[in-house]
Amino acid sequence: MDDVDQKSCWGVTAWAVAGFAGVMALAWLFGGHEVVAVVAAH
């Protein structure tokens, strides 16, 4: 049972990281480097 929970947890973590990276990439494409720097600094 723990193995299933652990895999599920890592799956959610991977999707969250991928989603955040996607948002940062879109911000970089549309807003320029300054927007990403400000968001990353917080």
Structural description of this entry:
It is a single chain. This protein is mainly alpha-helical. 93% of the residues lie in helices and 0% in strands. It has 2 helices and no strands. Helix 1 crosses helix 2.
Summarize the structure.
The chain has 42 residues and is mainly alpha-helical. Helices cover 93% and strands 0% of the residues.
> Largest sheet, described in full?
none
Task: Please give the alpha-carbon distance between the first and last residues.
Answer: 37 Å
Shape: elongated
Work out the helix count: 2
Strand percent estimate: under 5%
Helix content: over 70%
Task: Estimate the mean pLDDT confidence.
Answer: 78
- Run of helices and strands: HH
Residue ranges: pLDDT <50 for 5 or more in a row? none
List the helices and strands and how they pair.
Layout lengths: L1 H30 L1 H9 L1
Helix pairs in contact: 1-2
